[in-house]
Structure of DUF4374 domain-containing protein:
Amino acid sequence: MKGNFIDFKKLTAIILAGGLVSACTEDITPNPTPDPDPVVESRWITVAAAKMGDNPGDGNGGTLIYSLTSDEAKDPTVSIAPFDNGFIVPSNRTARLQSSEDGTTIFNISYAGDTGGNYTKYTVGGGQSFSQTGTSVSIAPYVGSAPRWIKLFDGDNTGAAVYVSTEHQFDDNGTPEDATDDTYLRTEATMGIVTLDLVNSVIVDFQESVVPLSEEEEANGYYISRIDMPTLNAAGDKLYIGARVSKVDPATAETDREGEILGSKTIVLDYPSLLNPTVITSTVGHGNTNGYRSINSFEYNGSVYQANQGDPNGSHILKIGADNQYDDSYVFSLDNALGTDEAYILAWRPASNGKAVVAYRDATSETGAAGAQGFFALVDLETRTAQKIEGIPYEADFYLFQYQGFVVHGTEIFLTEAPVGKNGNIYVVDTETGDVTKGAELVNVAGSHFIGVF
């Protein structure tokens, strides 16, 4: 497969234009019926496959990638087998992948193991051809060997990785022989964030900050226990970092999973200095905003839209306005929009028109080989509506909890569908019409699954 191809329409236009210029100098009559649908050039689509470790669907056997053009990805007569002949991405477990906006470059930071925290990038050459470009750099000294990281939407220039460490704090009223007499005070959460120059493979900055909740929340045992998915705002001067809030019983300092679930929270800090963190809280959504393996928030039309997880009323898409505060007048409940219960957003991605594909599970999900069954929905951020995408087959073993990547190509969104251990296909959703195209076949192996496209 060749990675470079000629856009013959453009080439023909250039030749004709040159001929017309040399032949005459008269004005050319404009076409009274110009093509309303401009040609969208083909691009690379890189499929990511997660190999089974010990259990079906765990993805702990490593990650393989394989690329094809977007035209080939749409072709159901094309068949690819990444588990048999894909490129092995360096990572002890499931790799955390990102791609350039045009699909020509894959960025990877290895997750866990001896190479954990190593950043590398590859030029996409088609099929299993991925050539490392530039040097590698380790961010492990800053954020550990299993970093949570994301590529900022700043022209493929910057990546950001984060971690949080926690420490329960007590007074010293107990005796040296019996420290259990000490009284729990609060849990201190210390956030670390590193920014990485993706072009030159160098560390840009690193900062650590204590991120407190309110005195009342901390006295009741709440603290930020996990963070992920840094998102740059439209002005380019703030980063939003999603957060998971956990709780202990202040009487015992033991984990308390029965407490009230607080309003969804996000850490806001200055960019590029990475200083002055504050915490904002939604009154619309409850639960966590850190996501899992996929990007959980996106800038659109001047605001940032963010999914939450673990909401007792089902996942919401929340809105953070240009004032860097939650816009609580924006209420988008996936339960209400889909007419379902217990919707849980696993991954999602909007196109430039404000319409998005959402991977989710709900109360109707069956328990399959690796966990709860997943579905896809098409949502509209403007109208706050959603509909289940019916043109994609679903079965109990279709597992999306580890799903990572969608490709946006114009107003189309590419995704993968394949149950654990079974063959499937690439599907392409036209976000304007809702039409679904069944594309290339994905050949699977026992216990493994596909985690998206890049």
